[in-house]
Amino acid sequence: MARMSQTNQSKVSRKILVITYYWPPAGGPGVQRVVKFVKFLPHFGYEPIVLTVKDGEYPAIDHSLQAEVSSEVNVIRTPTLEFFSLFKKLTGRPQKAGITTTILKAENPSWKDKIFRWIRYNLFFPDARIGWRRYALRAARQIIQSEKPVLIFCTSPPHSAQWIARQLHQETKIPWVADFRDPWTDAYWLSGLKNYPRALRKNTAMEKAVLSDASAIVTVSKGYQELLQKTNNSPILIRNGFDHTDFRIQKKANAKFRIVYTGSLSQIQMPDNFLKAIANLDSSVQENIQFDLFGAIDPFFFHRATELGIRHLVHEKGYIPHDQAVGEMIQADLLLLLTPKTPSKGMTPLKLYEYLAAGPFILGIGDVNSDPANILQAFEGGIYVSYQEELTAFLNNQFKEWKQNPEKIRTPNARVTELDRKELTRKLASVFDDIIDKEQANG
């Protein structure tokens, strides 16, 4: 068990090389984990040097996250070759359009998308970001020579970043901690990989090499711990969480009962039962409901709302910066959490932790035996139901409670402090401490 590192600003900082494809101005949950680690690691005696891409292909852009990065952090950006840029040209997509992993699972793909899938699965291992490898290796070798980092920390996906870290580890013998925000061959968007046996064999071999060779494996959920337990290198659980400094906004009473959803929403998250419940409400209740969605929402969602006659109640707000998204969470009367219908053991959306910190009651829809369901119950943040659950009575009750006291503010469970980003970074620093102490003891 890793020992807990103690805050000691007078402690001499040890430099570490942080390898991450996603970095501001990239937006979305993936970048927040590494940005917060980098923000708090200096409190525990570590000076991060960040290696990332210049002008990467990101699902979303969020310039507000740049404010989280101290001007003292050394950030090195390199060029990269992007397969997704070529894909957008071939399929007629705008160059500024974000590409998410859900395209690999989209129903009824076009012939162009089918070609994309074939090329992606058969020619790019382990993923389409492998074009960054030669640029990253060149820059990393220069950083290692000049800065002498005592450890390499690499976060993925893209898992091609771990392949970069592995080669550096083999060349230099510098300890390497591999952080997995998602599984590799067990990722839900790759569940159709059985149609590509060569890709599956190659990916499986690469995954096993990384899991075997890393000095330590870190991941974000108990389910992912089990999925990544493929070698003797047991994964360490360090969850995602929230930064309490982001949650200083005071909630105000809403004129209408306000339902809020943040993040992307694809067809494999379509909450038909929730939309039907809204449609079943009396018109006197409906006219006092406001349903706001912030993020990349599949058009089918709004098509279904139109079919049910509630399109006027559903407001598409688009992607907003993270700091604004936190404000919208706090201002909600009900927060909606949707996890994919496709089996995805261990998948726990980052927004669940931020929802818990925000305070409003949470309705989770997905697998009732999943990690998110267990976390929601443990922190008493709301309820978790299946996509088959009838929700009209639930919505009526929530609305009545709000109507009786629209100014009531629900406070988070006191235990939510366990999920504070600074405390989670303390756990990561203790992993680093143990590895470095062991290296020094072995000479």
3D structure, described in words:
- This protein is 38% helix and 15% strand.
- With 443 residues, the protein is α/β, with parallel strands linked by helices.
- It folds into two domains: 249 residues, Rossmann fold; 174 residues, Rossmann fold.
- The two termini are 22 Å apart.
Outline:
The protein has 443 residues and is an alpha/beta fold. 38% of the residues lie in helices and 15% in strands. The chain is globular and about 70 Å long.
Describe how the helices and strands are arranged:
Layout: E1 14-19, H1 29-40, E2 46-53, E3 74-78, H2 83-91, H3 111-123, H4 133-147, E4 151-156, H5 160-172, E5 176-180, H6 197-213, E6 216-219, H7 222-227, E7 236-237, E8 257-262, H8 272-280, H9 283-286, E9 289-294, H10 299-307, E10 314-316, H11 322-330, E11 334-338, H12 350-358, E12 361-365, H13 371-378, E13 382-385, H14 392-404, H15 421-441
Key phrases:
443 residues, alpha/beta, Rossmann fold, 2 domains, seven-stranded parallel β-sheet, six-stranded parallel β-sheet, 15 helices, 13 strands, globular
Rg measurement, Å: 22 Å
Per DSSP E runs of 2 or more residues, the count of β-strands stands at 13
Percent of sequence in beta strands = 5-15%
Look up the CATH topology of the largest domain: Rossmann fold
In CATH terms, the superfamily of the largest domain is: Glycogen Phosphorylase B
Q: Report the oligomer.
A: single chain
Assigned CATH class of the largest domain: Alpha Beta
Helix content: 25-40%
Distance linking N and C termini: 22 Å
Main sheet specs? 7 strands, parallel
Query: Based on CA inertia axes, which overall geometry fits?
Result: globular
CATH architectural designation of the largest domain? 3-Layer(aba) Sandwich
Number of domains: 2
Q: What is the H/E order?
A: EHEEHHHEHEHEHEEHHEHEHEHEHEHH
Task: Give average pLDDT, whole number.
Answer: 89
